[in-house]
Amino acid sequence: MQLDFGSLSGALPYLWKGFRYTVELTTISAAGGLFFGTLLALARLSSIKPLALAASAYVNLMRSVPLVLVIFWFFFLVPFALQWALGTERPPLVGAERTAIITFIMFEAAYFCEIMRAGIQSIPRGQVYAASALGLTYGQSMAHVVLPQAFRNMLPVLLTQTIILFQDTSLVYVISATDFVGAASKIAQRDSRLVEMYLFVAFVYFVLCYALSYAVKRLQLKIAIIR
Amino acid sequence: MFLQDAPEGGVQYWELLVSGLGWTLAVSACAWVIALLLGSAIGTLRTTHRAWVTRVGNAWVELFRNIPLLVQMFLWYFVAPEFVPALKSWVIAADPAHAQFLSAVLCLGLFTSARIAEQVRAGIQSLPQGQRLAGMALGLREPQVYRYVLLPMAFRIIIPPLTSETMNLIKNSSIALTIGLAELTFRAREIGEYTFHFFEAFSAATLIYVAIAMAANRVMALVERRTAVPGYIAHGAK
Questions:
Q1: CA distance A139 to chain B (A)
Q2: How far apart are CA B63 and CA B69, in angstroms?
Q3: A205 neighbors A214 (Cβ within 8 angstroms)
Q4: For chain B, which end, N or C, has fewer CB atoms within 10 Å of the first or last residue's CB respectively?
């Protein structure tokens, strides 16, 4: 078996474009997922029963279905949802790349919800009472007392989840979006250099994820000392 | 619509779903056995205070944890046969479904083994140091300490995380559709494409996955209750 990484250098600009999309998808989904996940967590912990039930049904459904199937679901549903929301005559053309962003925000929201819920529940109840004794409303006590601490306590877990998300975004391959893996597989098939290309992709992911998870581990130690 | 005939093979659509479910369960079951055996062995070795064994164990876990599962699937299906000539000649001669099945089982089995190894290590390390020392004081040799003292407790402690790993494994088996294995998600998409009833096809697959998740949860809860040590693990006490 002769390895030939020659076709790699010519393909680098295309791969870089795919990689940039992967990073973009990861950051937007992590930010959006964290935002909606926090709202979902608040809904799950809310004393309004129907709201709590709806939120936990959503989270449990998302968590018991494979990501690939969720991607297919959204790829199929998003155009119809947009047609309904915008009131247009035909389903608008959204494209795999933008559909993937919506999918991952909605999917990750379920996972970030569980992390934030654990974070909120780790805050002693006395703090909520203290906040309301000071005259803070529910919104104020959440925004200024509970959530900042919950967020900080859960920071390592949130970052670890983001690394997992970074790896999971490779699954947009199934709707032919051109992320890092998508770009690599297109080049690999064009040049019939599957072995070299996939080894290269695996190497890049490994180095990045290993370095990032090492950084998270260091951060965790640092935070643990401050507390 | 599930009672209509599929365009090829003389079967109805619901039979396609059932055969997809069969592949999903078969891949998951085989991979689960590999993952549990390998994961327990590696997780145990990582707690034995031998520097190089621990290092190999850590490298194993990091290797499988830091590469996306999709890329691992491609590595097993497209890349591995190129390096093993015997495997390559088998893959070319074999039924494609068998080659896909083998790749998927190896990929998911080793991937999950790294995660189970991490759980097993955490389970053993969560036990008080005194248990190991007490075992040694009784004159047990190291393998016996693991076999009779540490592992029976550690496995009971890690049943909940093992449950979620099992469900992750079943969900992850859907990634095998990228190498063409006709499992449940593959069949759902196929039926959608044949009939344009994507909504019904995906709903059916979703319901099946939810049912599998609930069933796995029940089974593991039963195992947890059956194996609980009285007075030790809180909710199994009675």
A1: 34
A2: 11
A3: no
A4: C
Q: Which CATH number fits domain B18-229: 1.10.3720.10, 3.30.420.10, 3.90.1210.10, 3.30.360.10?
A: 1.10.3720.10
Of the candidates B181, B205, B228, B235, the one whose C-alpha atom is nearest the C-alpha of residue B23 is B181
Task: Please give the model's pTM, rounded to 2 decimal places.
Answer: 0.89
User: Chain A residue closest to B73 (CA)?
Assistant: A198
pLDDT tens per residue across span B144-184: 999 999 999 999 989 989 998 999 999 999 999 999 999 99
**CA distance, residue A146 to nearest chain B CA (Å):** 28
pLDDT tens digit sequence for A67-115? 999 999 999 888 888 888 888 888 888 888 889 999 999 999 999 999 9
Domain-by-domain residue ranges, chain A?
A: 22-226
Domain A22-226 in CATH 1.10.3720.10? The answer is yes
Handedness of CA A5, A10, A13, A17 (dihedral sign): negative
- Contact between A181 and B68 using a beta-carbon 8 Å cutoff: yes
- Give the pLDDT band of residue B3 (cuts 50, 70, 90): confident
**What ipTM was assigned to the predicted interfaces of this complex?**
0.89
If 0-12 CB within 10 Å is exposed, 13-18 middle and 19+ buried, where does residue B30 land? middle
Query: Alpha helices, DSSP H only, in chain A?
Result: 6-44, 49-64, 67-86, 96-121, 125-133, 138-141, 147-168, 180-191, 194-226
